[in-house]
Amino acid sequence: xxxxxxxxxxxxxxxxxxxxxLDLCTQIKxxxxxxxxxxxxxxxxxxxxxxxxxxxxxxxxxDLKFYDIPxxxxxxxxxxxxxxxxxxTIHASGGKxxxxxxxxxxxxxxxxxxxxxxxxxxVTVLTSMDISDLSSIGVSRKLEDQVLSLAHLAKESxxxxxxxxxLEISLIKKExxxxxxxxxxxxxxxxxxxxxxxxxxTPTQAIKNGADxxxxxxxxxxxxxxxxxxxxxxxxxxxx
Length: 240
Known about the structure:
CATH class: Alpha Beta
Radius of gyration: 17 Å
Structural class: alpha/beta
Number of domains: 1
């Protein structure tokens, strides 16, 4: 039985081959709320690949992290809306004008098409980065302060949600309550390791702390039985 909690589980599917990705999505469909398609998949397969994955019947999270001048990002978002995605990402560090342009474009194009606009999410600080990485690119403030500042900017720009690491969930929830949706990557089951992620947390703890959605990739997609791995995570968070 598909539970509400399972809708909070997003699986990152970045296989290069469309058919392999579609087969995987079909396997895990009963246990996930959205399928995340990122740069690796999109660079090879493009919009047609996204449309093919939509055939499995699970909402699509297009994670391309747009970051450019406002007009360019607005046009990219417009194209994504026409493909029919349900969530998409832009970099919050692109600034208020860029985020406003993205948000407005999503709503305007969706209205013309007679569909619900996708949720536009502002990416704060990548989960692969820590304070030393921020320092190396000239950001001198504390990592938590940087995330909080970008979250405020995203909210002021009209975005519905942000992407943050699990370590910032409590901070953001305390500041914004439920007014910003939190999409949280860097999720690793107990004993699963961090791979190239530096700021990680278990599914249970992330949901307990207030994550609205958790993003899990390799612990599911690289598992011997992806359907079982996805269902195990779904079962874990369904009891919360």
